[in-house]
Here is the input.
Amino acid sequence: MAVGAHYSYGWHNLLLFGEGGRSSGGGLGTVNGLLASLGPAVDAAVLVRHYTADFHTFYGNALGENTRNINESGFYLGLKVRPLARWEVSMYFDLFRFPWLRYRVSAPSHGQDALLRVAFTPTKTSLLYAQYRARLKPLDLPTSGTGRPLPLPGQQLRHSLLLYCDVQPTARLGLRTRLQASYLRADDNLPWRRGYVLSQDATVQLARRVSLAARYAVFDTDDYDTRQYVFEQDVLYAISVPALYGQGTRAYAILQATLNKHFALWLRYADTRYRHQATVGSGLEEIKGAARSEVTAQVRYKL
Here is the structure.
């Protein structure tokens, strides 16, 4: 980015904020928003964004549908309501368009994204929520009945459902259950495709300085487009969000121990097993068989 500026202004229960920048090639990018407390139990957020097709930034991470903040304009509206004690309803609607071509979309396009979450906190150590999300995004569709597929502009509709339960029966034991599923259709004339994953997590405090976390998950998806992502615990400073697709199971366990004020140890083992597959992966990463295992160890020494 060659030059940029930002601002913020608070007035009573309102906060106005924004940022804009110009990259060295002349591209422009800006985000402007409003946060408002509409009452003791109602909060709202509005955000408008615009990134031109020639806007480039190495470290920009503003709200957007693309991986980078480029070639996008959008309007976001969010609302959070607490109608009763221990209950919370969150929702948002995002309308966006892409003025120029993008990955798997060979023409200017537009789409929308909407989400609704209802959460209930029965106790201080438990949380339950249900979430529904609908996304309509542009996608090139191949024609059928011809010798060579040609891209056609279309809309891909994805419905996603998430059910989550987090409880802590005792001071040393925590349990989390997660069920998420998605239904996808790339065109009105094509069939629906689906995928789901059901996971059970457990966290146990074995001793004052030793803890163990484990997960067992079952997944089933029709193809790679209906893959499921579920965040996993990993060693320090590492992130694990594997893409689960096909049919199979995923399990992992991670042990964390603080040996003394200088040494800390992490040990992690993960295993993915597939059904109806003779190999896992492709190219140089291809594995014969239907299972893939990972072992990770990390030791930290603090001066």
Summary: The radius of gyration is 23 Å. The longest strand covers residues 151-167.
